[in-house]
Write a structure and sequence with these properties.
mainly beta, five-stranded antiparallel β-sheet, 2 helices, globular
Length: about 300
């Protein structure tokens, strides 16, 4: 999850159901085969849900994908960004994607299927008035709790709750049903996706960071992913936490490692001004000691440090 190899484009707009764009999707392992469900933008700019499967399942890089001949699979409601599907103990599949209107508020709508091809609409996963549209919703298990995540209002939010296995209704544990109260990241972090890492038995999240300019053509790229983070819960099980995955430690350079003690940090300080600290990508591990009336100084320092890191 640190070093990556670039492969050819997997899916490109070339059909009437996705000719105006291929939006966010997810992959689910179905009978041992990875299956992509993604949002296609049709010739008349409707959002529909489509499916693709590996052209050669024995190819270790899964370079080529084949779109189903009977796409699109789901045409209503007009939403986007399907999440990884899940199953119940009766082998029914369930799929959510983002939806919402000014009247209904933001929602994640849920569908069910027996064969992963024919889908039946059930209802909104919850009742909500938070925002007017949800993007990139996600639902997954962490420590025997259910986490619901959504992107809206320029931020990514998540909450802990329970999913009724019969009604398929999600209920938050620690706040009103109408809110996703916990922001994942206070910086630039949006349209995140999660996936399960079976090697370390953990759910991993990666977000999208966007620039403040439109110089992508000159750079050759626009936007990038954050470092992968492992998801866990607070001790009381009511809040979601994340930390960089262990593999990130392989990037540490012991020659440039610095151990600084008794450093006084003034409000508004930048890490570039700390003695003997240089570089445009910095990992910081800290132990703090400060009076209660200086908590704001701590926040200001970290805000400046994160802002400086993201601009590099």
């Amino acid at each position: 999850m640190v070093h990556w190899v670039r492969l050819p484009i997997a899916l490109a707009p070339d059909q009437p159901y996705d000719i105006n764009g291929i939006f966010t999707g997810s992959t689910t392992i179905v009978d041992g085969v990875p299956v992509i469900i993604y949002t296609g933008i049709t010739t008349d700019n409707k959002q529909v849900q489509c499916q693709a499967r590996p052209a050669n399942i024995s190819d270790p890089t899964l370079t080529n994908w084949t779109k189903l001949s009977f796409n699109p699979l789901i045409t209503q409601p007009n939403g986007r960004d399907p999440a990884t599907a899940f199953q119940d103990d009766k082998n029914n599949y369930y799929l959510i994607y983002g939806y919402g209107t000014a009247e209904l508020g933001g929602q994640a709508v849920i569908f069910t299927s027996k064969d992963f091809v024919n889908w039946t609409y059930l209802h909104p996963l919850h009742s909500n008035k938070y925002g007017t549209f949800w993007e990139c919703p996600d639902i997954f298990n962490v420590s025997n709790r259910v986490v619901l995540k959504a992107s809206l209002l320029g931020r990514d939010f998540w909450t802990v709750g329970n999913l009724d296995p019969d009604q398929m209704i999600f209920t938050p544990l620690n706040h009103d049903l109408g809110e996703l109260i916990q922001i994942i990241d206070s910086g630039k972090f949006y349209a995140s996706k999660t996936f399960y890492d079976p090697l370390n038995d953990q759910q991993v999240i990666m977000g999208w960071v966007m620039e403040d300019d439109n110089q992508g053509a000159q750079r050759g790229w626009q936007g990038f992913h954050t470092l992968p983070r492992a998801i866990f819960l607070s001790e009381d099980g009511l809040e979601v936490r994340s930390r960089p995955v262990q593999e990130v430690r392989s990037l540490r350079d012991q020659q440039s490692h610095r151990c600084l003690k008794n450093i006084k940090v003034s409000p508004g300080a930048l890490f570039q001004n700390i003695p003997n600290v240089t570089g445009n990508q910095i990992e910081v591990q800290t132990t703090w000691q400060f009076p209660r009336n200086q908590v704001k100084s701590l926040f200001v320092f970290f805000h400046c440090l994160i802002t400086s890191f993201q601009r590099t």
